[in-house]
Predict the 3D structure of the following.
Amino acid sequence: MSLLAATIRRAEASETERLVEIALAAWDRDLRPFLSGTAANPATERRRMQHAVHDLLGRTIVAETEDGAVGWCARARTRAYVPFLFVDPVWQSRGIGTLLLSRTETLLELEGAERVQLDTLSDNVRAVAFYQHQGYRILALKRDGGGRDPELNVRLEKRLTPFRGPVDEDE
């Protein structure tokens, strides 16, 4: 499927529930099969996503089509890190994730970041391949969660070209 016209914009508080729904749909399809215990519990994940969307709303961008919001990406407050990138499964493989990630990287470059990092489940080969295709390289494998069956995550990193100079239009 090809990419249809999509607009990237800032997230709005009025769409919080839609962003949670996108995250849950993607989580259910792409991540939940690799999880166990409380990490695989939809109610737990819903609460986690509600908190994440609320906490990072000002640092979240949204991909919008004629169908409304179809994906979103957030960047961390204190470091060049992408904790969340979700695309509605119906809209995956149409370039939405690439568009969101690229725009997030540009925002991080404008903030002066020289590198960006993110984590994904090591079992999610599709996601690891996506990030590698976007220029990320694997830095490390790490265990996540202190439960009986902690998941193995992959830490990926990409070098950026930080913007050096004024951002003001007057200069």
Summary: Strands lie at 7-10, 60-65, 68-74, 81-82, 84-87, 115-121, 137-144, 151-159. The longest strand covers residues 151-159. The chain has a mean pLDDT of 91. Residues 72 and 106 are 15 Å apart (CA to CA).
